[in-house]
């Protein structure tokens, strides 16, 4: 006689944690490997001097 093993249902919290980890990981990779011009920020005094 064969026994059927009960299926373990994974809580949604595990998927949410994995999704959050992947989002942060990809965000860090984008920030690290992006060209430096994308995140360059000028100070307001530098903007006033260019006018």
From TrEMBL:
Protein name: ABC transporter permease
The organism's place on the tree of life at top rank: Bacteria
Spans traversing the lipid bilayer: 12-34
Protein keywords: Membrane, Transmembrane, Transmembrane helix
Statement: the UniProt record of this protein carries the keyword Membrane: yes
């Amino acid at each position: 006689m064969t026994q059927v093993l009960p299926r373990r249902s994974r809580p949604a919290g595990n998927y949410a944690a994995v999704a959050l980890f992947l989002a942060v990981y990809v965000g860090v990779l984008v920030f690290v490997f992006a060209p430096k011009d994308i995140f360059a920020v000028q100070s307001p005094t530098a903007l006033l001097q260019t006018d």
